[in-house]
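Tip: read the tokens left to right.
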């Protein structure tokens, strides 16, 4: 009788551990390690750009099915000669777990000032990254 109880206890513990492992792997999609950077890999993160720079927002999309939408909204918060909170560009892509980046260029020099890129995951704001152009 004691062997049966011990076997049931061990089986219960194994089943609990297995279920705990499964629930960890099915967590919700999320963005991690989000930065503004001078390059598309995010290896040169910065919050200060020059007037002629290409701007990148780089993030890791984790635990995401292939139909996950990530959107970047670039805004000039307070920049010389630009209306406050002017939306510059909005870009979205649909992908699964991946390192992703958004790129923003300007054929003219960027006006000096403060800027922001908002990152959305399936239409929900996840992060706001502030940066400057000097």
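Filled-in amino acids:
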């Amino acid at each position: 009788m004691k062997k049966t109880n011990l076997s049931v206890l061990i089986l219960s513990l194994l089943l609990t551990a297995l279920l705990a492992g499964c629930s960890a792997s099915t967590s919700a999609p999320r963005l991690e390690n989000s930065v503004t950077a001078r390059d598309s890999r995010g290896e040169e993160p910065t919050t200060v750009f020059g007037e002629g720079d290409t701007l990148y927002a780089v993030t890791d999309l984790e635990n995401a099915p292939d139909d996950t939408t990530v959107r970047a909204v670039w805004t000039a918060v307070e920049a010389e000669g630009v209306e406050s909170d002017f939306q510059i560009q909005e870009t979205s892509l649909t992908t699964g777990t991946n390192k992703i980046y958004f790129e923003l260029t300007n054929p003219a020099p960027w006006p000096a000032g403060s800027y922001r890129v908002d990152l959305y995951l399936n239409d929900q704001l996840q992060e706001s990254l502030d940066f400057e152009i000097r």
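Strands lie at 30-37, 48-49, 55-62, 68-79, 86-95, 98-104, 113-121, 124-133. The chain has one domain: 27-133.
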